[in-house]
């Protein structure tokens, strides 16, 4: 086994963990070993039953959290210690969805949304004080946007708009949230009131550039819209769940074969990097 493969937290590795590492190596997970310097963030993703992590500078994938229940829609606290995610349960003869937090240092988990509806797609605010998420009645289609504190208090609805169940994302300054409206339009709303601020374009799953001046989102291809002048750039890739890196260098996205990276300035597919055969990428501060 390569020497730079890291052990999971507290030094324990289950048989499943070793299989995950081996699967990644056999699948040809690629990293940029020649990149200058080291990034301050790592890339995380899920395999539907747990959360995994890799550095984009050196090889190796290891588990952050393993579970026996379906787990996805990862979002990290600003300090990289805690993660919120959607967990799927099967109770009372039907599936239900809850937003759950996990502390990577203590191992403590907390269900933030124990109510009767379904709850999805958490998004941690840049200052760490709020988690936005989507809620809808079981079996329904339209979702509402809500906010809750990481300790489970202060739960409230953000405005009257209806949303499609794709991840909302906070602006870097924490004043706005980009989301997918139920008519499959990317919109920006006020993070305090939920009031509509701007309608961007047809698409879904927006992600902000670190300077807050652009949004990338899923359309026919991954698309970038400048928010000041409205000009649009179409990237040469098709994928889902884009996540702009905090340093602005990469947009991670989910394609059929796994998680990839593309430069926001890309004009062809030459520089696209395959990272790992998993899904739904999210960036985490090194911890």
Brief write-up:
The protein has 1 helix and 24 strands. By secondary structure, it is mainly beta.
Walk me through this protein's architecture.
The protein is mainly β and 287 residues long. The chain contains one helix and 24 strands. The chain has one helix spanning 15-27, and strands at 41-46, 50-54, 61-66, 71-76, 82-91, 94-103, 109-111, 118-124, 131-136, 144-148, 156-157, 169-170, 176-180, 185-190, 196-202, 204-208, 214-218, 222-226, 232-234, 240-244, 251-255, 258-262, 273-276, 279-285. The strands form six sheets. A four-stranded antiparallel β-sheet has the order 3-2-1-24, covered by helices on one side. A four-stranded antiparallel β-sheet has the order 4-5-6-7, with no helix packed on it. A hairpin with a 7-residue loop joins strand 9 (131-136) and strand 10 (144-148). The model is unreliable at 1-28 and 31-36 (pLDDT under 50).
């Amino acid at each position: 086994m390569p020497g730079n493969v890291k052990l999971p937290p507290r030094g324990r590795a289950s048989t499943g963990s070793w299989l995950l590492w081996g699967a990644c190596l056999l699948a040809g997970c690629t990293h940029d070993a020649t990149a200058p310097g080291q990034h301050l963030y790592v890339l995380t993703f899920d395999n539907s039953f747990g959360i995994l992590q890799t550095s984009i500078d050196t090889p190796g994938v290891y588990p952050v959290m393993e579970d026996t229940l379906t787990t996805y829609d990862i979002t990290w606290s600003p300090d990289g210690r805690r993660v919120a995610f959607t967990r799927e349960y099967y109770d009372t003869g039907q599936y239900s969805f809850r937003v759950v937090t996990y502390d990577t240092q203590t191992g403590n988990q907390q269900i933030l949304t124990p109510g009767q509806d379904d709850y999805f797609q958490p998004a941690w605010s840049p200052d760490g004080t709020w988690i936005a998420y989507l809620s809808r009645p079981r079996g329904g289609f339209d979702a509402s946007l809500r906010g809750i504190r990481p300790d489970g208090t202060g739960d409230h609805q953000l405005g009257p708009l209806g949303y499609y169940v794709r991840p909302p994302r906070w602006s870097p300054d924490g004043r706005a949230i980009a989301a997918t409206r139920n008519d499959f339009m990317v919109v920006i709303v006020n993070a305090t009131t939920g009031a509509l601020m701007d309608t961007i374009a047809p698409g879904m799953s927006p992600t902000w550039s670190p300077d807050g001046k652009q949004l990338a989102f899923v359309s026919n291809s991954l698309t970038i819209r400048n928010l000041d002048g409205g000009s649009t750039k179409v990237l040469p890739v098709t994928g889902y769940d884009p996540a702009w890196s905090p340093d602005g260098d990469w947009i991670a996205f989910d394609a059929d074969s796994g998680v990839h990276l593309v430069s926001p300035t890309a004009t062809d597919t030459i520089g696209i990097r395959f990272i790992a055969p998993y899904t739904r990428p999210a960036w985490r501060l090194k911890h």
